[in-house]
Amino acid sequence: MIRRVDRRTLLGLDFERDDPETDFYLKDEYSATVNVFLHFTVLGVIALVSGRPFLFPSLGPSAYLIATGEQPRAEGAYHVIGGHAVAVVAGMIAYALFGNEVSAYVVFARPDPAFSMEVIYLWASGTVAMMLTTTAMLLTKTNHAAACATTLIVALGLMGGLEDAIIIVTAVAVLWYLHDRVISPLAVRYGFKPRDARAE
C-alpha cells in the first residue's frame, strides 16, 4: 500500500507532519542539507579567495552537528571553537614532541612503510595528541567530539605550524558565526531549521 505524502511536507516546508501515518519525511534531511551547503559555500569562497586551506576534514563533523542540532552543546561557540582550539594545541604539542617532522601524506605514499620508524613517530604523535585532547576537553568541558579529528590532522603532519593552527581555529569560528548569526535566523524565518536528529 502506497501512503500519500503531502507535497509541502515532502519539500520540507512544514515544521510538523501533516499525516502522522506517513513513513516518508524529508524535513530534517532537506533543512540540514541546506545548512551544510551554505556553510561550505562560504568557507569554499574564503579558501578560493585566500588560497589557504579553509576546508579540511574535521569541519565536516562539526558542520553536521551544527546543521542537524544532534547535540545541543555542539552549537555553542565555547564547545565548537573551544574544542577545536584545544585540539590544535594538543596536536601541535604532540607533533613537536614525537612527530619528528614527518607527514602521513609522505610516509604512507612510500612503497613499503611497514615497520619504519616514521610510522612509529606518527603513531606516538597521534596517540599522545588524542590523550591530551581528551583530557583537556574534559577538564575545560568543551567536549566537542569533532575536534578529535582536528588533533589528528595536526599530530599526523597533515596540517601544522602556527599559520595552519590560526586557519583551523578561524575556519571553525567562521563556521559557528555564520550558522549562529546568519543561517540559523534565516532557517527560522523561512522554515528550514532542523529538529533534533535523534528525535526519531
UniProtKB/TrEMBL annotation:
Residues 30-159 form the HPP transmembrane region domain. Pfam families: TM_HPP. Coiled coil: none annotated. The keyword Cell membrane does not apply. Keywords: Membrane, Transmembrane, Transmembrane helix. The chain crosses the membrane at residues 36-56, 76-98, 119-140, 152-178. The keyword Protease does not apply. This is HPP family protein.
